[in-house]
Amino acid sequence: MALWGGRFSSATSDDVTKYSESISFDKRLYKHDIMGSKAHVKMLAAQGIIPAETADAIRAELDKIQKRIETGDFSYDITMEDIHMHIESALIEVLGAEGARVHSARSRNDQVALDIRLYLRDQVDELIAGVRHFQRALVLQADANKDVILPGFTHLQHAQVVVFAHHLLAYVEMLDRDAERLADCRKRLNVCPLGSGALAGSTLPINREMVAEELNFSRCTRNSMDAVADRDFAIELVSALAIFAMHTSRLSEDLILWCSQEFNFVELDDAFCTGSSLMPQKKNPDVCELTRGKTARVYGALTALLTMCKGLPLTYNRDLQEDKLAIFDALDTVQMILKVYPPMIETMVLRKENMRAAASDPALMATDLAEKLVELGVPFRTAHHRVGSFVKYCKEKGKALDEVTLAEMQETIPEATAEFLTLFDPEESVAKRNITGGTGFAQVEKQLEFWKKNLD
Hints:
about 450 residues, Fumarase C, Chain A, domain 2, two-stranded antiparallel ribbon, single chain, Ribonucleotide Reductase Protein R1, domain 1, 3 domains, Fumarase C, Chain B, domain 1
C-alpha cells in the first residue's frame, strides 16, 4: 500500500498509477532529496522530536541508499510515484518504524520545493561556469584574429567595416549579461522552504533556521503557503535560459551565413558538422542549425511553466509535478549547448582573405564621407543627402566610389577635397573609430584586455 494510503479502501488503478508517476524523471533529484532529509532529521533530533540514535541511523542508511542509487543497485517502482517515496520506503524497509520518523514535520509539498531549489542551485553554479568557459573561447578566437576586418551588417546588408574580434566580443557581452541573470536568479531560489509542511507549517517545535544553515541557504521562506505554491524561481531561471538560448541562436545564424559558399568567411571543424546522405560534397553546420531549433524547445519550456502556473489557486496542486519536465529539458538543452560551443568556436578557421575582400567595398565607407563633411561644418542631414547623391551618381555611371575623379565627386559633394579620395581604405576606416565601445583596433584591444583579465 502507498505510504499515503491509510484512508483509501481500494488501490489506485494501473492506468492512473502510470499517469501520475514522476519517478521516471524526478529520480535525478535523489542526491538533493537525501541531502534535505539528512539535514531535516539532524534538526529533528536536536529539537528532541526524534531520538538522536534514530537520526544517526537514518542518516547512515540514507548514505547507503545514495551509494546504491549511484552504483545502479536500486530498483524503481512506479507504484511508489516519486523519488521521495522511493527513498522513504527504502529507509522503512531497513529501519522499520524508526525509518518512518524521517517524515515528521514535513510534507512532500515542502520536500519537493526544497529538492528542486537545491538541484537548481547546483545547476546554476554549473551553468555560470559553462557560460564563462564559452566567453573565454570567444575571447581566445577574437584575440587570435584582432586585426581581421569584415563587413558589419544591418538588415543583412553590408553596412560598415568592423573588426572580427569586435563582432565576437558582442556575444561575450551578451553572455556576460546571461551569467549575471543566472547569478541574480540564484539569490531568489537560495531560500529554504522546508518546514512549511503541506501549506501551514507544523505544530512540532522545529528549527527551520537550523536546516537552512545546514543546507547553506541564505534564509528561510517567510510564508508557508508561498513556499509550497509558487515556482517563480524556476520560471525566472528558465527565462534566463531562454534568453541565453536566443543569444546562441543568433550566433549560430551568423556562423551558418559565414559558412555558406556565398560568404565563405569561416570553416567549422569536421567534428561539429555532418554530411549529406545523398550529396557527397556537403558539409553542413548542423550544430548551429540544431541550436536554432533547440532554442524553440527552451522557449517552449518557459511557456509551459508560465501556462501551468497561471490559473493555480493557493496552495499546492498536483499540476506542479509537471514543472520538472520543462525545467529539466531546458537545463539539459542549455548544458549541451555549453558543452559543444566552446570547442567549436576555438577550432573555427577564418578565411581572412575573403573577409578582407568583402570589407574592401568602398561603399562601406560612405558614412566616413558624410562624417568628413560634418568635420568641415556641413550639417549631418545635408552631408547624408550629398553622399547619397554621390552613391547614386556612381551607381548610374557603373563606377565604384573610389574610381571617380575629384571633379566627379564634387558634382554632388562640392566641399570634397583630395583628402576625400583617401577615405576608402577599410583599415583606416576602422582605426578612426577609436571611441569607447567602438570597433577601432585600439578599442578592441582594450576590450580584449578587459575580458582576458576578468575571465581569468
